[in-house]
Amino acid sequence: MMRKALTFMMNRKKITVFLIALVVLSLFASFASFAPFVPDASAQTAKSKYFAADSAWKKLRNNPKRQKYRDQWFACIRRYEAVYKLDPNGEWAAAGLFKAGQLYYSLSRRSYLDSDRQEAIDIFERIIKRYPKSAYANKAAAEIRKITKTSPKRSVSTKSISSKGKPPSGGSRAKTAKDKYYAADAAYKKLRKSPRKLKYRDQWLVCINKYKAVYDHNPRGEWAAAGLYKTGKLYYELYKRSSRKSDKKNSIDTFERIVRNHPGSRYNKRAVWEVKRITGRNIQVAKSDTGTTETTKDKFCRPETEISLASEPKGISEIRNIRYWSNPSYTRVVIDADKDTRYHHRLLKEDPSIHKPPRLYVDLDRSVLCSEFDKVIPINDNLLKNARVGQHTPDSVRVVVDIKSFDNYKIFSLKNPFRIVIDVWGKKSGNRHGGKQYHASKGSTKNSDKILPSAIAKQFALGVKRIVIDPGHGGRDYGAPGYLKGVHEKYVVLSLAKKLAARIKKDLGCEVVLTRNNNKFLTLEERTAIANTKNADLFISLHTNAARSRHAYGIETYFLNLATDADAIRVAAKENATSEKNISDLQSILTDLMQNAKINESSRLATHVHESMCKNLKKKYSRIKSKGVKQAPFYVLLGAQMPSILIETAFISNPRECKRLVDPKYQENLCKAIVDGIRNYMRETNPTAFINKGANYNKF
Questions:
Q1: Architecture of domain 316-438 in CATH?
Q2: Which helix (H) or strand (E) holds 371?
Q3: What is the pTM for the complete model shown?
Q4: Does the domain made of 464-700 have the CATH classification 3.40.50.720?
Q5: Per-residue pLDDT reduced to its tens digit, 491-503
Q6: Which of 197, 401, 437, 440 could pair covalently with 203 via S-S, beta carbons 3.0-4.6 A apart?
């Protein structure tokens, strides 16, 4: 009986479970049949998101402390935008956008950032265009009228917002915007020069607001993007000091505004690059319904263009400095930029009607001006008055050199880093050390500009009186590393140069000038400028060679000309701190920069010095190898107005020659051999100069 009772109870439980499952399934079926009458799930979620955003906004409104932080505002704005993005065609989409626009405008009244105000206008404009039948369309139009009414510096209407974004003509407004830009630059320059003011946030905001005023003055003018770009740059500089996320966000928002509202500006690509640098992400730009561009966070569509970080070096360059060296008859001006750019120049005649002297200007395309140096550089020598630099257009920089008098000029560029060199020569005089300059221009039509080889003897009638010695490298430029630990080229050649200078003074009685007498960095064009401004008769640049193979050894002597072999190009690329490709580019301009008479004299000097080094050193040392006299385009010799050579004294990468280069006795023997070579050159050039030179010459 017990067994039957248990079996009955178990069967009863199974029947009960089965009946319950049947009821549940029937309920599901009934719900499914009534599905058409249930509200859409996405709409329910959009509604819940809207009320969640409202709740977050209420908390922010009731907390004045949190209202001071931009990221708190954006947390609420993003919640309202999420309502729109969840269901762009739903009934809650326009409501979410409208509240997002209102919060942007409220934020702009606290931040005084025009990008926030413009973002509000953009959102309201989108509501009008996308939801014209919605009640929020009229509300959005009313908000636009209110915003533009409370912004007197800006005259924006719904019609102008929905236009195709074509900027109005420049006129006086563009000129005023340009003036505002320069005023902002001047304020920022003062700030940069005051470490005390840099500590205060309000000082940064003053400069930022000045740049924003450029944009506010004419938001669709040609200077608008330039003002926005500098605003973004300063916000990011401020962020690096303050570590406030709001400053970083302001910077990113400003750059994104350039991309969105100024697609035709050349600041567009640079703004994209800045966003990439700050955030690590690319901005994907697409055409919007209004003719401007939107980021993909605003509109889901295939991007027409995507600009990567790698494209920036080919884009906008920044002009960072202007340097000059001068004497009464020669001036060299150098324009420094952070990357290669195209440029063109023109010489303008004197214009008495506007009291303008003769002037030479250089326009650098796709360039912007750094605010950290003077806009007017006084020179005031016999040739030039000053150099002036300015942002000629939003994407080009003009450098103007005001001229007093000149005979000829030449302009060429160097690379790594990119710089433009302007050489200006004065009228020729009878005495070289009194200001005589000799040069030639391929484009010149005057026969007097050409120097015949027969004139060489006359030019050196007074003999060699002043020699400039250039120890290569220095400072942050260590040169080639030696085989021995701790040995570097910059130290070895400086020691050689000092010993060579002392021996030249003693044995030849010539005045000697060192381009550097300590561990100091000099640019290559500065070394040549020193030789030119000192009116040197000879220029000798000292270096040590290096190669990947430690077995390479020997002595090479170079003069300036087109390279004749791959080895010469390699050496020139190493000493120029550039690539072999740039060397081949440089060779194309050499013909227009050099004169045959000077090349011949340089070749003669190189031959005498090289033969003397090899001959004298072979008497005292084994395995002295002559690698010959060669020619190559060296930056340090470019533009030199006197016979000039570059000596690769030995291979510092070779174990044997590295040990010799640090040996004081070897250095003395090497310097004596160089002096003997200079003496042989001087005797061949002007033998009569040795007749009455005294004991130092007669004993030879």
A1: Sandwich (2.60)
A2: none
A3: 0.56
A4: no
A5: 999 999 999 999 9
A6: 197
